[in-house]
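Sequence in, structure out. Go.
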Amino acid sequence: MSVRRIVTGHDENGKAIVIADGESPNILRPDNRPGVEINNLWVLDEAPSRPLGPEESVDRQIGLLPPKNGSVFRVIKFPPERDWIDNVDPEAAKASFASIGAEGASDQDAPPHPLMHKTETVDFALCVSGEIYLVLDDSEVLMKPGDTCVQRGTNHAWSNRSDQDCYMMFVLVDGTFE
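Output:
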């Protein structure tokens, strides 16, 4: 599934126009996560946002976290994990999160899923296609298309145990545990 991104703006007379229509110019395909695609669609550097700000916001390195006091709108493709999940030990998981700027997000030695992580964010998630398990410390929930989750800084992982890719849409909002 390709993700089409339409961005609106204004012309020199203040009329509403489409300023971008196509694939996001910035998609991360991490070497240490085969088949995963992190597709940032828009990033806000602060709240309140500036709707008349820059015409492009994703021309930056993709990381797991939104900017401080900001948010990120993204789609992630989660491929089936059966072919690679057994190769992810705690050190590999820590390295995976560090490679996307989230050092310390994974700090367990024997989690229920090797990619468990916790961030100081509120994440709004929507299952677009496929299915995926939301794994928590002592429970899990199967999400299917149309299901949503408000993930509030909890220890969690996303586990695709099916035979099909799963596409999840997220809005991550920066926060603090204090």
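Check: The mean pLDDT is 92. Helices lie at 90-98.
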